[in-house]
Target: tRNA methyltransferase complex GCD14 subunit
Amino acid sequence: MSIDPAELSGVRRGPLHAGERVTLADMRGHRHTLLLEPGRIFHTTKGALAHDDIIGRPQGVVVSTVGGLEFTVFRPLLHEYTVSMPREAAVIYPKDAAQIVLWADVFPGARVLESGVGSGALSLYLLRAIGPTGTLHSYERRDEFAQVALGNVEEFLGGPHPGWTVTVGGLVETIADEPVDRAILDMLRPWDCIDAVAERLVPGGLLCCYVTTTTQMGCVADQLRHHGGFTEPTITETTVREWHAEGLAIRPGHGTSAHTGFLIVSRRMAPGVLAPVRKRRPAPGAYGPDYHGPVPRTVAAEHLEANRRRAADDSDRIAPAVRKALRRRVR
Model:
């Protein structure tokens, strides 16, 4: 099934049809997603609502159950669809997807690489951003995740996107030999794929990694510095808070979307060109004896040796006190 390039955004116009998803919202803000089917009934605590009362009507109407409960009816927006669609894996939430499209500077016609498809949420945002002339090559290790993502994307768009390719397999093992303008990594160990991505990313291209923990964040940043072919990474975290405004009662809302993940963004240098070395010295314990990750080019060998000596001296200094405390505890 092919779709008109003008409809690749997933936006539909005109009356509501059977087979479409709609969002019902009551006056208390409760939302329900329905897949419209002729003859089907939506049941609530205040009576039933027939799907036939919605099919054929425009968006923005108000429908009522037999018990008088009113709902507004709209087609779901992209961010509403991605948090309510079927899923096998956790999805990237709208606030982070929006930042990825912004910070990675995804543009119409871009050639984008995505690793970690999950349930297809981020794929939808990227496909909308690249438009009908761009290409998105997505990689996913697990076939069941890829199938769910394909179904979700095709349902929202109304059919397959001609510029989207999904490859099942690990990124390093299956990456295509093709130039890309942007690379988005949403995976457990993105630092293992930086070398492979760097070979395909055009000079000036952007790499954006989405991770959920500070340990992952540190590994990605240090691997980028160690590689040398990327600019100093920019690391951000996004928090979204709703507000309540009614007359003089203006206050933060009860719903706050706090930490979900970190974005690490860096640009590709030209072939054979190393990024300038930062002049700032790292903190004394940043690359101490307990650190086992990649060491950036900016960290001198004498700095590492000084950290090891300092740690050894500290251990020798506190060892007698520790032994004394243990003897007291045994007694």
